Amino acid sequence: MKKIVFAIVLAVLAVPNLTAQLPAELVKYLWNAQWITAAEAPQRDESVLHFRRILDFPQPLPHFVIHVSADNQYLLYVNQKRVGTGPNRGDLAHWKYETYDIGPLLHPGQNIVAATVWNFGVRTPLAQISDRTAFVMEGDSAVERAIDTNESWEVEPEKAFTTLSPPAELSKFYYVAEPATRVDGRTFDWDWNSDSSASGAWKKATPIERASIEGGSLQNDNWQLVADPLPQMQEEWRPAGRVVRSQGVESPSGFPDRAFTVPANSKVSLLIDNSDLTTGYPELTVSGGKGSTTRLKYAEALVDNKGEKGNRNDTSGKHIEGVFDEFIADGSESRAFVPLGWKTWRYVQLEVETADQPLRIDRLRTLFTAFPFEERAHFQSDDDSLKPIWDIGWRTARLDAHDTYMDTPYWERMQYIGDTRIQALISYTVAGDDRLARQAIQAFNNSRFSEGITRSRHPSSVRQVIPTFSLLWVGMVHDFWMYRSDPDFVKAQLPGTRTVLDWFLQHQRRDGLVGIIPWWPFVDWGSDFGFGIPPLDENGGSSIITLQMVEALRHGAELESAFGDPARAETYRKAAGRATEAVSRLCWNQKYGLLADTPAQTHFSQHANILAAWLDVVPRPKQKEFLSRVFSVSDPGFGSTSLPEMTKATYYFRFYLARALDHAGMGDEYLKLLGPWRQMVSLGLTTWAEEPEPTRSDSHAWSAHPNYDLLTIVAGIRPKAPGFSAVTIEPHLGSLHHLSAAMPHPKGVIDAEYDRTPNGVNAQVTLPVGLSGDLVWQGKSTPLHAGKQQIQLK
């Protein structure tokens, strides 16, 4: 019977004027608008399409609300004014649409609503999921329905755009972001967005099917539309930098802000340094020079003949390698070229080859773009070397956050759980903003497949599974619970945390350790971890992976106790206890006083021992001495002792190293851990690298955790209870004599200032209205209340 009903539904949908016959519970999922495309354009291959609708309005419209989406991406205009880009990335079952009020851009008379939609086919960035090239726009109410996409819209394929094979040097590393592109200005329709209805090769758009919101998959397409809660990305015009090297021409005075001319039949290159890494849309404006080819080549850093970066400020003896865009001039005045996708660079090289006409390079500027985070926290101290560490960390966090978090804005732009957990914590504590974190937590929940665990990254058109990252996603949910009071959102994640933890419990051996697990059990890019995988015995038994499971089980137990199933919470606690006991019994090496990576005890790492302290495998009274020995392997100032060779934690896993240090009551030692970041500062990095030199990525999200550490360990500001309903402030000043810090809270801003004197430390703390907590110093707790208070610490 169900099959017959479904067939009737499809038949009704095929006849639009019969839609009224559908039951109300089905109609509510349907939009009036239709997905549209171009009949003659490839729908699942590379294509760029222009769409437009010309409308007449007799009077001003103060509000005109529309909902817009596309596959892959769109750039929307109203009367030649740039409105926005989108959609923000998701998967087909959760396809985002944006909402705009374009009323202020409309005027009495003729109006043009237009969009460019593109699909890069097989060269589409890996973070982009796709069904086929299409566009949809829906008016919010009956007044706006004239705008709905259907056959009344026009479409024009834009054949001037092509993607190019990536340069060979990128093949040395994993590059899956925006492709190289070429725009031939000689064939580009420069009037496509003008008010001339006669220009171009416009044809009626081809409808695909009625659009449907999530839950209404009753038609012949795969997009399940969901309203995007994220704001539009920040867009801000900025200067393009300064010329630091020129070839074929004397360095032009005033460029990139002032014009210069390249003679006919010439080759010229200019290397431009932005001073800091940035993300944005470069806009190059040229005049004349028909047939000239201009290339913009982007790089995070220059390299020498050995491929090494060295000091990022040095240009001597170095050259640029990287992805590029090309523009062929049509000979007209003031042609502005902007690539469809944003780029990442510190250095951009402008390479010009003219034909038989001179080309005037009018201007190069940057439309900066990133998620619109605001820096609401601050950290200021008498140690001047900490300022660049704070500033560079915040820049890294900003550039690695757009419509999703991403590991690196240059190489991948993928939202990985391992990076994203750290990024979300920085967002809570520095920006006081949880919008992108909510997106990420839900995206990973949505990514779970039949086995119950999450994908390691999402969205992604290629499945990748790192089971250990699923454990960290449980930690992300727990982190959110601590920093934000939104029980409904947390409870909505519990079905996901349960399937993840159940999967791991199925792989827990009888002795309590985790056995062999499928997929990619990545932990860290340790120097002798094979492709990031820690050592395993024949049947598994990794102490590191087992302890990561312990952390997730404890978090899961707390979440279940608060919101879910007390019996399940007890199951998690017992499983965590068995695992902890097994690690201690089977992997503890008495000779070295260290935890080995497996029961075979032939390999040791900082990773296992960091987790052993953090999760109390090592008893609390012994943790300080224990961690001092573990840290001495890589960090000066912790002493030295006779130890076996140990795999060292990279920038990423040092986030967990900091957690262990703090947990063991050694927060005053934290500043000693910043040596690798001080080294990066000395090398001229303006964002934090992926791993120690040599490194692929100069901007990697997981390396930005010192911003979080400085606020939560050094300044000592952290949630005392779930929902940040109370605060604990436990500063660890180390060698600092003065510190002023602030952290945003849902109720306001928490301010803390400390001044060391011969008699102790003068503390001044200000809490927002409705917040209370404790100030902890040398084991002594002092109550805190809303407002300002002065406390003498001794």
Radius of gyration: 29 Å
Q: Helix segment count?
A: 14
The quaternary structure here is: single chain
CATH class of the largest domain: Mainly Alpha
Q: In the CATH hierarchy, what is the architecture of the largest domain at level 2?
A: Alpha/alpha barrel
The proportion of residues in beta strands is 25-35%
CATH fold descriptor of the largest domain: Glycosyltransferase
Percent of residues in helices comes to 10-25%
Q: How many beta-strand runs?
A: 36
User: In angstroms, what separates the terminal alpha carbons?
Assistant: 78 Å
How many structural domains can be distinguished in the coordinates?
4
Uncertain runs are 1-18
* Main pleated-sheet profile: 11 strands, mixed
**Mean pLDDT over the residues:** 94
Overall geometry comes to globular
Please identify the structural class as seen in this structure.
alpha+beta
Key structural traits:
single chain; 794 residues; alpha+beta; Jelly Rolls; Glycosyltransferase; eleven-stranded mixed sheet; six-stranded antiparallel sheet; disordered N terminus
What does this structure look like?
The protein has 794 residues and is of the alpha+beta class. It folds into 4 domains: 203 residues, Galactose-binding domain-like (Jelly Rolls), CATH 2.60.120; 137 residues, Jelly Rolls; 337 residues, Glycosyltransferase; 80 residues, Maltose phosphorylase, domain 3, CATH 2.60.420. Helix content is 23%, strand content 28%. It contains 14 helices and 36 strands. The strands form 8 sheets. Strands 10, 11, 15, 16, 17, 18, 19, 20, 21, 22 and 23 form an 11-stranded mixed sheet that branches. A hairpin with a 2-residue loop joins β4 and β5. α4 packs across α14, α8 runs parallel beside α10 and α10 runs parallel beside α12. The longest helix is centred in the C-terminal third of the chain and has 22 residues. The protein starts with a helix and ends with a strand. The N terminus is likely disordered.
